[in-house]
Structures are given as C-alpha cells and as structure tokens.
Design brief:
334 residues, alpha+beta, capsid protein of prophage fold, eight-stranded mixed beta sheet
Length: 334
Amino acid sequence: MAGMAGQTANFGDAIKTTYDRRLLTRALPRLVHARFGMQARVNKGYGTLELRKYSGLSAVSTPLDEGVTPSQQSAPTVATTTITPLWYGAWLGYTDKLDLTNYDPIVSEMVGILGEQAGLSIDTLVRNAITDGATADYSNGVSARASLAAVTDKISFSDIIIQIAELEAGDAMTMDGGGFPIIAHPHSWATLMQDDTFVTLFTREGGQALRTGQVGTILNCPMYLSSNAREYADGGASSADVYSMLFIAKESFGLWGLASLTPNYGSLDNGGVGYANRTGSPPRPLEIIMMEPGSAGSLDPLKQRGTIAWKCAHEEAILNSAWLRNLEHINDFS
C-alpha cells in the first residue's frame, strides 16, 4: 500500500523495549583447586602458623648379635614450614539514585558478583601456587615445557599411569575415600576421551558428582574438570598452548586463613570457594562488608554513597612437592 513507508519511525517513542527481569546467568568456572589442601586457621594474636614434620628411619637389614647392643640410630630430622596469611579484598561503590532507579536488584547483584570474584581469586591463587610448587612432568616423555609439540606430544593414558605410579612409589597418602584427585581442563578431558585405553577404564559418576566438577574415576582416582585449570599460553614448541593436569596426594599442600577472615575452602562434599553460585544462592566464602549510604557520616551528609566489599586473609604452602605432581601436556586444543 503506497504512502506507508516510515510510519514505524514516526511512532518510535511509542514502541518500547520489553524488559525481562530475569538476569542471564554469568559463566563461572568450577572452583576446585582449594578443596584438597590441608586446612588450618590462625587465631587472633597469632599471625604465623608453624607446621613440623619428622623424618622417618630406614629399614634395619643387619641381624642382632647375641648379647651385643647395636649402635643408636641417627636422630630423625625435623622439617618446619612457616606461613603467614596475606590479606586480599576488593569493593564496588553505588549511589542511592542508582539503587532506587535501576530496574535490576543492583545491590544484591553486586554482592553476588563480588562473591564470585572472591572465589575465583582464591582458587586462582591456590592453582598458581600448587602448579608452581609441584613436581613437574611432561607428556610423551618430553623433558621441558618448551619442547612440547602440538602434533607428537598429546596427553595419553600412559602419562596418567606414570603420575600415579610416581605417587605410589613415593608412599604418597591417598585422600580420605581413596585415590589421588586429578584436576584437568575440559580440553584435556576431551582429548583423553579419544584414547581407547582411557575410555575403557574410565568410570563415569552420576549427576550429583557432575555438579561439583567430578566427571568420573580412573584407576581409583577421581577426576575433576575446571575451566580455571592452568594453561600456559604459547608455552610449548612453535607457540603451542600447554595445559596443566594436577595429581594431588593428601597433605601435599596447605591452606591457612586468619580467624573469621578465613575463606571457606570447601571440601570433597561441596563446591568449594564461591561455588554456591551454581546452586542459585550467593557465596559466603569470607567477610562481605556492606556500607549503606550515609554510613560515612559527615563525609556523606546526603546519604548518597554506599559500598560493598569482600575481604579475607589467606595463604597457601607446598608441604611435600613429591606428593603433588603437575603433568604439563599438549591436547587437541593446543
């Protein structure tokens, strides 16, 4: 029909955008690295924690002579680990006008976002510390990260066998419930799922385990997936990306906080630091500090400015690097 062009533009002010109050879910990694550390908390007034470990004695192979007292054994040595929690935190500000005129529940959203950041921060700090402090090994028998080649050095079932065997040979203690937890990137898991031997021995767990990041068990070792597993961009030969896969024994690393500022590091039975977002409730891993508009007194005389923050005291330490192995490797996505 002639003469109707441009009518939509003329009535532009009358055409409104439909606004959906349901906010889209933010993409969150499964934060699993802190679950497997030995956890402790330093009380108020004691800012440093000391842990001690006595060495063992070697086997006796010489029989006793009749009536002869053998020489005294050499006294065991004592290894000491001292650790002082460090402080971390971040904050966001808002105004009374923003809170009153924003269509979204901006304050509660900011609490959730900061909680997620706190969880990701702790998980990343722990991840970096344990990958740096672990005993390093490389897929396909390569001797260094820079030598890992994209075509020839992809991770395989035999690489996993070697890591578990080395832990067993070093008398590493399994976690409660058995096995050494494995933390892998989804890209590495996808590569292993094309290895016939791995697929044959891999035991898939149920939906409850999937919620916490566990995807199954290999040789009695539970495997957990996280997109926050460490990657070394361009770390291999010809700028191939190198991935980390962790094999963790009991008491191989420790996590410490300070009094009420200690993060909730999580355990095998829950999602760990900040993971509560995946079940729909905001995380409470540490202290959330909310300052309402006007709480600053004369510095905010019109009650215009408020802040939301998180704060924690945390540190990690390697207790036995031989019981913590980092398999650096190539996968199909390198």
